[in-house]
Amino acid sequence: MMHRYLLGFALLALPACQAPYYAAPGLDDWPQWRGPERDGVWRETGLIEKFSEPQLEIVWRKKISSGYSGPTVADGRVFVFDRVTEGTQQTERVHCFDARSGDGLWMHSYDCPYIGVNYPAGPRGSITIHEGRAYALGTMGNFHCFEAATGDILWSKDLNREYKIHMPIWGIACSPLIEKDLVIVQIGGADGANLVAFDKKTGNERWKALDDPASYSSPIVIDQAGKRVLVCWTGSRLVGLDPTNGNLHWEHPMPPKDFVRNCASPVWVEDSILLTSFFGGAAMFRLEQKKLAIEKVWRRVGPSEKETDGLHTNFAEPIIQGDHIYGCDSYGQLRCLKASTGERVWEDLEVIPQQRWSTLRFIPNGDRVWMFTELGDLIIGRLSPQGFEETSRAHLLEPTTEQLPSRRGGVCWSYPAFAYQHVFARSDEEIVCASLKAE
Q1: Mind spelling out the 3-state secondary structure of 299-317?
Q2: Where are the alpha helices (DSSP H) in 288-362?
């Protein structure tokens, strides 16, 4: 059973003389996982230097249900994925809201029982918006392409049925990646379909590649040796592929310790790629620039009695700034490492509480870093080899308990979106918008 509701078009009701605020110079969309460049960097200017109150003033809030999927923002619209369970009926829903007012524009729902999936709070991957289309990949492999303005379905696929997915224990978590005329996803399908590329307009398969099990990491595309290279951390290795046809350029084995648990996307800066996970530790690779090849620079394994100095993230990507790496260990330690060796430079235990599975999101913006904590706080600060300097902190969103049931008092694990000088964040109960524009 599928349902779609057209809820209104606030943007179309604007007077002709009133330009949409998202079209103003210097204002950016956040149209996919980790932002416009898929690198977690917020490039807008004209933002506040510090918070004036301990609680951010909410511009609008709307009720939604549970899910790990972070919101995305494009063309004046906000998109978010959630899940509703009513008795025996389980549905996934794609919501579209007006970015200025929060008014609902449309919503599409479809039946989606979660079979064999742990942590069933809801969809994992963020919705990708590109050239007026919205691409949504659900936990069980339901893949939809919508007309972003209206919610009309342009094409849809049941990838679990079509590709006989060996379903990961935490479900499908990939956020769709657009590269030229393709939309690419990691699903872990049978018969060489770990990665599958579809024509973004028709949904027709263009290529499939690799027999690897799926991980929870979303792929990226980088530039190397004059070529575009699709980089994916699968369930068993780091790979670089030709994004036009799926041919393998290079690989490095990364077998799991017991079962696949890597979640964070690869972090790419210039000629370096960084991988991090709690159970697998961290690894740095150097990209050759005269040929399509990589070289391992260092790897520090997961936490043990012998190795506690590295970076063992839960699922939030660290950042590379200059010669140093900054990230949050899975017990809540903010750490700085030398990028060249992986050795620890310093550790800060005061930024967030020391708890198992702790998570801290990093959003670089100019010479400072915004951080979103799992307690729902937004922090402005600066990171350097000398330490962390917190400038200001304010509460944005109340944590909820669906994402991490029966542990602590709730978490905010979903990645926020930063667009139009605003922040858009969600919990398992609501999505909120707050202004970060300088007065």
Answers
A1: EECCCCCCCCCCCCCCCCC
A2: none
